[in-house]
Amino acid sequence: MKRITILVADDEAEIADLIELHLKKEGYDVLKAADGQEAVQAAQTHSVDLAILDIMMPKLDGYEVIRQIREQHHMPIIFLSAKTSDLDKIAGLVRGADDYMTKPFNPMELIARVNAHLRRYMQMSQPTTSGKLALEAGGVVIYPDQRIVTLYGETIELTPKEFDILHLLASYPKKVFSTENIFQHVWGEAYFETSNTVMVHIRTLRKKLHEDTNKNKLIKTVWGVGYTFNG
C-alpha cells in the first residue's frame, strides 16, 4: 500500500518538528520545508497527499505557495498561521485552502483534521466503475467519476472541497442544504466552530462559475436556511 506523504512548510523549526512528530506517530511520511520556495519545490518533485502551510514564510509566502501548488495539484491544503482574524481566515480559504487553523494550536486537533481531509480525499480519488451520469445545468457539466467540471465546454479548476460542494448541491436540485449539512457531507466530520468555511468556499465557487455576473444563479441562497442548486 502506498504510504501517505504530508508536506509541512513552516519557518519555525520547533513547530515543524512538533507537527512532524505527531504525524509520524500516525504513520505518515513527512516532508519539511523551511520557506515557501522549498515548499513549492517539494510539491513539484514529490508525491504529496496533503500540505500544511504557514502563511508568513521567507522567499514565498503561503498565499503564493498555494497559488503555485494549485496550478498542478488538488490535494487538501491546511493553513496553520499566527494570523488569527476572521478576515485572515477568509483570505486563506479564498486563496484555495481547504481548512485554516490558528497558532497556538492543539496538535491532536490538527491531526484530527488531517485525518478527516485525507479520508475524504482518498475516498473521492478512488477509481470507480460506477458509470455515474454527468450532471448538466446552465452551461455547467459535472463529471462525477473524473471529478471534472466544465463551463460552456471549458474546464474550470476547482479545489476538492469546491467540487464536493458543487456535486452535492447538483445531485439534489431544489433541495435546501444548511451550512451544517454541507459541512458534514463534504468534510465528513462534526460541524466546526462557524459557518464561515462553507460560506467562503461557496463564494469562491460562485466566482469560478461566473455567478457574480449571472442573474439566474445556479447556487441560490435561501436566506436564514442555507443553499440550493437552482438547476
From TrEMBL:
GO terms for molecular function: phosphorelay response regulator activity; transcription cis-regulatory region binding. GO terms for biological process: regulation of DNA-templated transcription. It is found in: Cytoplasm. GO terms for cellular component: cytosol; protein-DNA complex. InterPro entries: CheY-like_superfamily (IPR011006), OmpR/PhoB-type_DNA-bd (IPR001867), Sig_transdc_resp-reg_receiver (IPR001789), WalR-like (IPR039420), WH-like_DNA-bd_sf (IPR036388). The modification 4-aspartylphosphate is found at D54. Residues 132-231 form the OmpR/PhoB-type domain. Residues 132-231 bind DNA. Keywords: DNA-binding, Phosphoprotein, Transcription, Transcription regulation, Two-component regulatory system. CDD domains: REC_OmpR (cd17574), trans_reg_C (cd00383). SMART domains: REC (SM00448), Trans_reg_C (SM00862). Residues 5-118 form the Response regulatory domain. Its main location: cytoplasm. This is DNA-binding response regulator. It comes from Paenibacillus glucanolyticus.
